[in-house]
């Protein structure tokens, strides 16, 4: 069993959202030490300040797409705490738009963080996890690692890749008899700052953000992002401690997973009906359906 108590755990993208909640839950369950990293050092330090006594904490700035930086970070954690038992590869970003308008550099950036960031974290921490004798790799995918959506070709590609990577290395580790388990996580609608961060990023990069965009985002947060990150973290870590290879977070994730598996030809129609209903509700509030939306970006994305 991959128990958390007395273990050394690491969480990337721990500056907010699910990442922060995971770090706090790990400490609550008695982790001996928690390494928290984020692209923004101040966010990682804020998370560290919220962790009570009894758990050692190491906060650091980390760009998970930078392989050399991840290698240095893994070494720092191992040197400081003696070993590493669990890595939670949570950091991620999002960006949307139709494939006809999506430039190569935007695809590369999404893949570098969401997919290569997971590979970097897995590969650089793996020797330490093996040496611990009781390792666990937890990779955060998405609902979009189960089902595709319009305008999310880059994001969906990265999250499907995280799922495939995690499920594949599970076979490798078992075949080679390494003492390391794996879990892939598919969160549904969690109350994180991803949508709000998207608007901020759009404004900061000079994209047009209208009152309609802001109202759409507010309504999206209200209607679709319902689960508290703290509850999502509990579900994830319950799954890890039960050695579940796959964790679905939220009723929406469980429902859509079942729909995609049981009705692979029909689920797009059912999901399309939901989308049209959502657009009608927006239209009733005076928001034009299918209004042009700014590109979205956030770290962490979850999820």
Give an overview in words:
The chain is an alpha/beta fold. 51% of the residues lie in helices and 13% in strands. It has helices at residues 17-28, 41-50, 67-81, 104-114, 116-132, 153-175, 194-204, 211-224, 229-241, 251-262, 267-284, and strands at residues 8-11, 33-38, 56-61, 86-89, 135-140, 180-187, 246-249. The protein has a seven-stranded parallel sheet, sandwiched between helices. β1 (8-11), α1 and β2 form a beta-alpha-beta unit. Residues 291-303 have low confidence and may be disordered.
The end-to-end distance, rounded to whole angstroms, is: 26 Å
Whole-number count of domains: 1
What integer is the average pLDDT? 85
Name of the CATH first level: Alpha Beta
Could you describe the largest sheet, including whether it forms a barrel? 7 strands, parallel
Features:
about 300 residues; disordered C terminus; Rossmann fold; alpha/beta; about 15% strand; about 50% helix; single chain
In short:
This protein has 303 residues and is α/β, with parallel strands linked by helices. The protein contains 11 helices and 7 strands. Helix 1 crosses helix 9.
């Amino acid at each position: 069993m991959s128990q958390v108590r007395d273990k050394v755990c690491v969480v990337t993208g721990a500056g907010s959202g699910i990442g922060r909640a995971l770090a706090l839950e790990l400490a609550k369950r008695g982790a001996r030490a928690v390494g928290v990293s984020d692209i923004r050092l101040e966010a990682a330090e804020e998370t560290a300040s919220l962790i009570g006594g009894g758990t050692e904490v190491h906060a650091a700035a980390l760009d998970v797409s930078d392989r050399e930086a991840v290698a240095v970070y893994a070494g720092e954690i191992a040197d400081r705490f003696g070993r590493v038992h669990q890595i939670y590869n949570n950091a991620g970003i999002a960006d949307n738009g139709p494939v006809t308008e999506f430039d190569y550099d935007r695809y590369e950036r999404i893949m570098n963080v969401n997919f290569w960031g997971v590979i970097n974290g897995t590969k650089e921490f793996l020797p330490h996890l093996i040496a611990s004798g009781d390792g666990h790799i937890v990779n955060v995918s998405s609902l979009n690692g189960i089902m595709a959506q319009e305008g999310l070709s880059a994001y969906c590609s990265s999250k499907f890749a995280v799922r495939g990577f995690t499920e594949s290395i599970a076979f490798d580790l078992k075949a080679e008899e390494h003492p390391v388990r794996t879990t892939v996580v598919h969160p549904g609608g969690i109350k994180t700052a991803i949508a709000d961060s998207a608007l901020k990023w759009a404004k900061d990069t000079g994209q047009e953000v209208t009152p309609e965009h802001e109202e759409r985002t507010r309504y999206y947060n209200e209607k679709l992002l319902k689960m508290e990150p703290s509850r999502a973290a509990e579900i994830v870590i319950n799954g890890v401690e039960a050695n579940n290879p796959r964790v679905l977070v939220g009723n929406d994730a469980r429902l859509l997973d079942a729909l995609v598996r049981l009705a692979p030809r029909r689920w797009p129609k059912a999901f399309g009906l939901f989308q049209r209903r959502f657009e009608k509700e927006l239209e009733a509030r005076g928001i034009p359906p299918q209004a042009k939306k700014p590109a979205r970006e956030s770290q962490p994305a979850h999820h």
